[in-house]
Specification:
With 574 residues, the chain is α+β, with helices and mostly antiparallel strands. It is built from 14 helices and 18 strands. 49% of the residues lie in helices and 21% in strands. The strands form four sheets. Strands 1, 2, 3, 4, 5 and 6 form a six-stranded mixed sheet that branches. A five-stranded antiparallel sheet has the order 8-7-11-10-9. A hairpin with a 5-residue loop joins strand 7 and strand 8. Helix 1 runs antiparallel to helix 6, helix 8 packs antiparallel against helix 9 and helix 9 packs antiparallel against helix 10.
């Protein structure tokens, strides 16, 4: 992916970046404010709605329960049971019907919430059609809306329906109860309760709320505002487990999101439900988000103007510098840059001027440096002759020692010659491990001659390892350190050198049985390794960066253990 700062104009990038940043911050702010405020409003709304529904439910439950108790007491009245049994003569039956009618009428007058009372029996008495107390044929109950609910129950509440009276249709809730006497089915007592009375309690002070009175099966008995079906809820949607709670769900048919608050009083047969459209709850949050968006758009316009002005101020000196760089010509007339900038642009202009002066000076000195380079090359060629001269001289000294019978001196000169030849290695920085081990073996043999067999050494390396490459002059400084410091003031010593492969790397180990690293030697050449070992570390760092390890530590029982780990090299590195 191409970096846009390498392709497009800076002023355009400035505007896009600032506008994008403000847009992102604005979007996050709007969303956060909307989410937080809407959640807070929903929590507060659900809390107060739940409290209100609990109060309303307590009141409605108390009123309707009293109606049920009145119905139960009336259905067990002796006169009513005697009247429904039909075992009296015609005169007493008529007289008792009048008494029952007066008693039921007294209930309707004393309890204003009762609209009327109907009694269904086998042989009803004729009554006043304008009375609130009516006797009906038992078969006529089958046509009433509450009758199907009594098929599997002894009593039940009906949904809201219209009751026909001499004053017209009146909306009521009907509580019907079967009347029994010694397990004999006698009739049905129906108490009609004014629906407007219950609706007034349910409505409370909220004129625009959607509240429903349900039974425990989720059947709607009465509603204020929209009915349960109009609000998009079905009976199977209302699976309430607790006495009171809150649901947030999508109501049908259009998937409108609503807040559903419900309340159920313990040991009651009622449940109150209030449905509030989510958009009504979050209307305040939407207004707040609109205000924030308006402010954000204004801030976006101001940011656009500000970034446009800033980008032009920034691009003006940059454009001058770019033109000066494009028109630069060595030895020609240079473009003039503004001199009144004292900020970073002034530093850039001053640096460009100094750069021009240095370029001019460099061009002026090229001829002189070229001449000096030619001379240096000639001197380097001459310097290559000196090592060969020294090697030839050692060879001549070796022959002189042989002629004089100095066998030890001859052997030392021979070993030094071999070491010198390996050290030259045609100017290469890397040699085979075989040559490196030969080089250090020559050094150890010279020390053996000096120690008169007091020094022992052992070299372990497989043929495969010996064919790998290593920076030259790696082992000799560590071996020399062991002899000079580890075997100081001693008559004997032993050194072991081991080379092996280990997971795509080479491990070289140098072990001696010398005096070890004494605590007082910390910080000394024994710990740091002197110039030769520092040289090895610096060369390894230059060749391998951090892909190597060199550790110098005390042995387990005596002496020092040097560990050198570096990458496996099958050919010399340049």
């Amino acid at each position: 992916m191409i970096n846009p700062f390498k392709r497009y104009r800076i002023d355009s990038l400035f505007i896009i970046c600032f506008a994008g940043l403000i847009t992102i911050v604005l979007a996050i702010t709007v969303w956060t404010s909307y989410a937080m405020t809407s959640r807070e409003l929903a929590d507060n709304t659900s809390y107060y709605q739940k409290r209100l529904l609990e109060e309303l439910n307590n009141e409605i439950t108390g009123r309707l329960t009293s109606i049920e108790q009145i119905s139960l007491t009336t259905s067990r009245d002796h006169d009513l049971l005697t009247f429904l049994s039909g075992k009296e003569d015609e005169f007493n039956h008529y007289r008792r019907s009048k008494g029952i009618q007066e008693a039921l009428a007294h209930l309707t007058y004393s309890i204003p919430q009762i609209q009327a009372i109907d009694l269904y029996m086998e042989q009803p008495e004729w009554g006043d059609r304008q009375s609130y107390i009516q006797f009906h044929e038992l078969k006529a109950a089958e046509a009433q809306p509450w009758y199907p609910l009594l098929q599997n129950n002894d009593f039940s509440w009906s949904e809201e329906h219209d009751l026909t009276t001499y004053k017209g249709n009146v909306p009521v809730l009907s509580f019907s109860r079967k009347v029994y006497n010694n397990s004999r089915y006698l009739g049905i007592l129906v108490v009609h309760v004014k629906a407007d009375w219950i609706r007034g309690i349910l409505e409370g002070y909220a004129k625009d709320s959607n509240r429903m009175l349900l039974d425990l099966n989720g059947r709607e008995l009465l509603s204020v505002g929209k009915s349960m079906t109009d609000a998009g809820l079905q009976e199977q949607d209302l699976q309430f487990a607790d006495q009171s709670g809150v649901l947030r769900q999508h109501t049908q048919p259009h998937g409108v999101e609503s807040l559903v608050v419900y309340s159920k009083v313990a040991d009651s047969n009622w449940m109150l439900v209030e449905i509030t459209p989510w958009e009504r709850i979050t209307s305040g949050s939407v207004k707040l988000a609109g205000v924030i968006i308006t402010i954000g758009i204004g801030a976006l316009l101001l940011a656009f103007l500000l970034t446009l002005w800033l980008s032009r101020q920034l691009l003006k000196p940059i454009a001058q510098l770019v033109r000066a760089m494009k028109n630069y010509d060595v030895g020609g007339k240079q473009a003039e840059l503004a001199g009144d900038y004292t900020n970073e642009f002034g530093i850039l202009f001053a640096g460009f001027r100094r750069l021009n002066e240095r370029i001019q000076a460099l061009y002026a000195s090229l001829a002189q440096r070229y001449e000096q380079q030619r001379k240096a090359e000639i001197e380097a060629l001459q310097a290559n002759i000196n090592p060969h001269f020294l090697y030839n001289t050692l060879d001549q000294l070796n022959w002189m020692a042989i002629a004089e019978g100095q066998e030890k001196m001859s052997r030392i000169l021979e070993l030094m010659g071999r070491m010198f030849r390996i050290g030259l290695s045609h100017g290469e920085s890397f040699i085979t491990i075989e040559d490196e081990l030969t080089h250090v073996a020559c050094y150890l043999e010279i020390q053996q001659i000096r120690w008169e067999d007091g020094l022992e050494y052992e070299v372990q390396a497989s043929k495969e390892v010996r064919d790998l490459f290593i920076p030259k002059m790696t082992l000799q400084p560590f071996v020399e350190n062991s002899i000079i410091h580890g075997f100081n003031a001693r008559q004997s010593g032993r050194i072991q050198i081991k080379a092996e492969e280990e997971g795509g790397r080479v491990r070289m180990t140098i072990t001696d049985n010398g005096s070890g690293l004494a605590p007082e030697s910390i910080g000394s050449h024994r710990r740091k390794g002197g110039y030769g070992i520092r040289n090895v570390r610096e060369r390894f760092s230059a060749f391998f960066n951090d892909n190597y390890e060199i550790h110098v530590k005390d042995g387990e029982f005596e002496g020092v253990v040097v560990t050198i780990i570096f990458p496996r090299l099958e050919e010399a590195q340049t």
